[in-house]
Amino acid sequence: GQNIDQPTEMTATEGAIVQINCTYQTSGFNGLFWYQQHAGEAPTFLSYNVLDGLEEKGRFSSFLSRSKGYSYLLLKELQMKDSASYLCAVIDSNYQLIWGAGTKLIIKP
Amino acid sequence: ETGVTQTPRHLVMGMTNKKSLKCEQHLGHNAMYWYKQSAKKPLELMFVYSLEERVENNSVPSRFSPECPNSSHLFLHLHTLQPEDSALYLCASSQADRAGANVLTFGAGSRLTVL
Q1: pLDDT over 70 (residue B52)
Q2: Partner-chain contact B43 A87, CB within 8 Å
Q3: How far is the alpha carbon of B32 from chain A, nearest alpha carbon, in Å?
Q4: Res A104: pLDDT
Q5: Which of A4, A48, A99 lies closest to B101 in CB terms?
Q6: Residue A96 belongs to what H/E stretch?
Q7: A with B: how many residue pairs have Cβ under 8 Å apart?
Q8: For the purposes of burial, counting CB atoms within 10 Å of the CB of B58, is it exposed (0-12), middle (13-18) or buried (19 or more)?
Q9: Alpha carbon distance B93, B2 (integer Å)
Q10: What are the residues whose beta carbons fall under 8 Å from the beta carbon of A23, sequence distance 6 or more?
Q11: Is B109 part of the contact surface with chain A (CB cutoff 8 Å)?
Q12: Which of A95, A22, A105, A101 is nearest to A65 (CA)?
C-alpha cells in the first residue's frame, strides 16, 4: 500500500527553527507538496519539490531526497502565526495525490 | 479569500435530511475536487471533475452525489447520511495538467455534523 508518515504534533518556541519530516512509500514519484492549514481555514500551497535538494522561499524551505523517500519542511524565525497544520502530499506514478495526516505545529512564546 | 468559496460553512443535519454543499471558483481553473477531512486522518479524495468529466472514487457511498453544472460550480448532494460522515468537506480547484504538478486551491470547507 501507499503511505505518507508525518509526526502528529510538534511544539516549538517563537523565534526558533523547526523541521517537520515527511517520509513516503508510494508506487512511483512525480513530486511532493507541502500545504499549510490554519485552524478553520483552507489549506494553502507552500512548496513543490520534484528534484533532490533544497528549495528556499523566505523563512520556509523544503528539502527532498528521492532515494530516501524523505522530505522536510524547515521553518525559520518562527512566528506565532506559523501555528498551523502542515500537510505533506506525494504525486504517485498514476498522478494521484497521496496525503499524509498532517503535522500540527504549536508555537509557544 | 482563496478564490474558492464554499457554502454553507457549517451544517447540522439529521440522518433523514437532504442537503447540498456548494462550491464556486473564480480562478478560471478546469478541474474541481471534493475532499473529506477527518481529524488526524489524511485527506480523502471523493470526486474529481476534470474538463467537466467526473472521475469516480468507488469507495464513496452513494449517499454522496456530486454535480458539476459548469467549470466554475460544484455541488455535493447529501442524503440519509450517517454520524460517521461528520467531517470537514473541502472543495478545491486546479488547472489540470497531467504532466506536471497540479497545485490545488482549496476553499475553507463546510463543517458537517450528522446527528
Answers
A1: no
A2: yes
A3: 14
A4: 98
A5: A48
A6: none
A7: 46
A8: exposed
A9: 10
A10: A4, A5, A68, A69, A70, A71
A11: yes
A12: A22
Per-residue pLDDT at B98 = 59
Taking residues B95-108, report their average pLDDT.
82
Buried b / exposed e along A77-98 (16+ C-beta atoms within 10 A): ebeeebbbbbbbbbbbeebebb
pLDDT per residue over B62-100, tens digit each?
A: 999 999 999 899 999 999 999 999 999 999 999 987 556
Cα–chain center distance at A20: 6
C-alpha cell, A58: 523566505
Using CB atoms, which residue from B40, B102, B108 is nearest to A42?
B108
Alpha-carbon distance B43 to nearest alpha carbon in chain A (angstroms): 6
| pLDDT tens figures, B2-31 | 899 999 999 999 888 899 999 999 999 999
**Mean pLDDT of residues grouped by 10 in chain A (109 residues)?**
94 98 96 96 96 96 97 98 98 92 97
Using DSSP's 3-state secondary structure scheme, residue B83 falls into helix
Cα(A49)–Cα(B20) distance, integer angstroms: 36
Which candidate in B104, B105, B110, B111 is best for mutational testing of the A interface (most A CBs within 10 A)? B104
A95 neighbourhood in chain B, CB within 8 Å = 98
Q: Which of B112, B100, B82 is nearest to A97 (CA)?
A: B100
Subunit contact A43:B103, Cβ cutoff 8 A: no
